Amino acid sequence: MSPVPVAPFIVGVIAAPLVQRIAKPIARGAVKTSVGLVMDVKHASLRAAEGMRDVVVDAAGKNDAPETASERPTDGVVTPKKRTGAAKAD
Questions:
Q1: Pick from 49, 66, 68: which is nearest to 57 by CA?
Q2: Is 75 helix (H, G, I), strand (E, B) or coil?
Q3: Quick one: where's region Disordered (predicted)?
Q4: How far apart are the first and last CA of the chain?
Q5: Which stretch of DSSP H or E encloses residue 63?
Q6: Contacts (Cβ under 8 Å, ≥6 apart) of 11
Q7: What is the rounded distance in angstroms from the CA atom of residue 54 to the CA atom of residue 84?
């Protein structure tokens, strides 16, 4: 006849509440920390996206603005002005 496994059962009954007292706060802390990190990353990404939107709007605004003579790039190429229809030489 084999011996009845009573010792592991008793150890489990005694150890389960102790493990629960230790593991529960650790698990709760891990969950709170991970949720906090997720929220921080979410807020940081929203701030970065807002900053990028501001940069894009500024760049688009500068591209849409009419150029003045001093802002035009000078690379040595001169563009001729358009003639009006009144001065024609034949």
A1: 49
A2: coil
A3: 60-90
A4: 128
A5: helix 6-64
A6: none
A7: 42
Q: Hey, what are 58's tokens?
A: 């500024």
Whose tokens are 């008793």? That residue is 10
Report the alpha-carbon distance of residue 77 to residue 83 in Å, rounded. Answer: 19
| pLDDT tens digits, one per residue of 26-40 | 999 999 999 999 999
Please name the amino acid found at residue 59: A
CA dihedral 51, 55, 57, 62 (to 10 degrees): 160
pTM of the model: 0.47
- Residue 73 CA to residue 3 CA, distance in Å, equals 95
Separation CA 49–CA 57 (nearest Å)? 12
